[in-house]
Specification:
10 helices; Rossmann fold; globular; 3-stranded parallel β-sheet; 6-stranded parallel β-sheet; 291 residues; binds guanine; alpha/beta; single chain
Length: 291
């Protein structure tokens, strides 16, 4: 069993990105600048956004955090987005999800200038990705592709089962892995909450991407020997024995699945850190494209 070490791989990536930034600065070019909008005080979202800001510092980007209260109106949020759309110093920005219930998420994502949409969530970028045109790839699927590539995991002709059909992970992952590309050329099945014969499917799978958001859902009896496991889940579970009061669990029951796996991502330290590194990569790309 080989651990797909997202912590190490993302650190390598950030070193590479920092070198590119240093070069840009030496050439007198613009320093990449990422902005993030956070609405409300959701604990996990605050953690993620802070990690993104910290990563910017590490690679030498400028960053701006726009922290808005929970009760922010949709109109105010749309105005904040328009300000970032028209601010020439901002190369890319994200609106951290989920948003409070009174705000229409689709409307918000549509308001982002596709050229600055480093999350790759705008319909223009989703469409361009689907048609294999240059676009921003959503950070989590992009990070998974990068991890598979760097560990030389063979995907061509393999049976992939993606569990989950979210717009952020499952759906784009399934599209990307079926395309002609490195870490692609796979035969992909998308499973979801209405799938009837899930265990039959996962037992056939060479690669399983678990992105359904149910902690420790995928168990050892559901996978074949030699499988590659990508665990996208990260859920806080109450644990009074921990100082923080919680522990982090993936969508995969690691103890029973790991012994049967050829490759597996740990949680934490697998997909999560890759997502942040790819957001940095997309921001660098946005800055270079603009130049
Ligand atoms: N919430 C969970 N994942 C993501 C992500 O990749 N981007 C944003 N903006 N919000 C998220």
């Amino acid at each position: 069993m080989i651990l797909l070490d997202g912590k190490k791989t993302s650190a390598d990536l950030k070193v590479e990105i920092a070198a590119s930034v240093k070069q840009l600065k030496e050439q007198g070019k613009k320093t990449p600048h990422l902005a993030a909008i956070l609405v409300g005080t959701d604990g996990a979202s605050m953690t993620y956004v802070n990690a993104k800001v910290k990563a910017c510092e590490l690679v030498g980007f400028n960053s701006t955090l726009i922290d808005l209260p929970e009760e922010t109106s949709e109109e105010t949020l749309l105005q904040a987005i328009e300000n970032l759309n028209t601010n020439n110093d901002i190369d890319g920005f994200i609106v951290q999800l989920p948003l409070p219930k009174h705000i229409d998420e689709q409307k918000v994502l549509m308001a982002i200038n596709p050229d600055k949409d480093v999350d790759g969530f705008h319909p223009t970028n989703v469409g361009r990705m689907t048609l294999e045109l240059p676009s921003f790839l959503p950070a989590t699927p992009f990070g998974i592709l990068e991890l598979l590539e760097r560990y030389n995991v063979e995907t061509s002709g393999k049976q992939v089962v993606v569990i989950g059909r979210s717009h952020i992970v499952g759906r784009p992952m399934s599209i990307l892995m079926s395309q002609k590309r490195k870490a692609g050329d796979a035969t992909v099945t998308v499973a979801h909450s209405r799938t009837k014969n899930l265990k039959e499917l996962t037992l056939q799978a060479d690669i399983i991407v678990a992105a359904l958001g149910i902690p420790e859902f995928l168990t050892g009896d559901m996978v074949k020997d030699g499988v590659t496991i990508i665990d996208v889940g990260i859920t806080r579970i109450d644990d009074s024995s921990k100082k923080s009061g919680y522990r982090l669990a993936g969508d995969v029951h690691f103890e029973s699945v790991a012994p049967k796996s050829a490759y597996i991502t740990p949680v934490p330290g697998g997909v999560g850190p890759m997502t942040i590194a790819m957001l940095m990569k997309n921001t660098l790309l946005a800055c270079e494209r603009k130049a």
